[in-house]
Amino acid sequence: MRRTLTAVIAGALLVTGCSTPEQPPAPPELPSPQVAVPLTPTGPATPDPRVVTTLNLVHPSGQQTPTRHTIKLGTVVDLTIASTADGQAAIKSLDLVADVTGGSGRIQFTALVPGDHVVIFGTRELAVLTVS
């Protein structure tokens, strides 16, 4: 009887001691988004693999000839307009407008429309962006 009880206890310990607890299944991997995250005032919320062209335009009080910039099609454009005067900057051909207050304004877009696009502040042409 003692041998049988010892064998049963040893067998029970062997079975429970050798088994390992089951691991919970790993969560499924989510697909990565196919659309890049738009830029925020402090930069992209997550790393953005697209090329970003940064342009800084200054609206002076004197007469100025518009500057010309070549932009590659598909590039993200981060355009900052600095001015001592408050007003609106616009790229009318792309229907983009930004208020310029407190010294600067910002327009961000992806260059998807080829051609020449004029950046204006009030009635003055600041720059011509050639997207190709």
Automatic annotation (TrEMBL):
<protein>
    <submittedName>
        <fullName>Uncharacterized protein</fullName>
    </submittedName>
</protein>
<feature type="compositionally biased region" description="Pro residues">
    <location>
        <begin position="22"/>
        <end position="31"/>
    </location>
</feature>
<feature type="region of interest" description="Disordered">
    <location>
        <begin position="19"/>
        <end position="48"/>
    </location>
</feature>
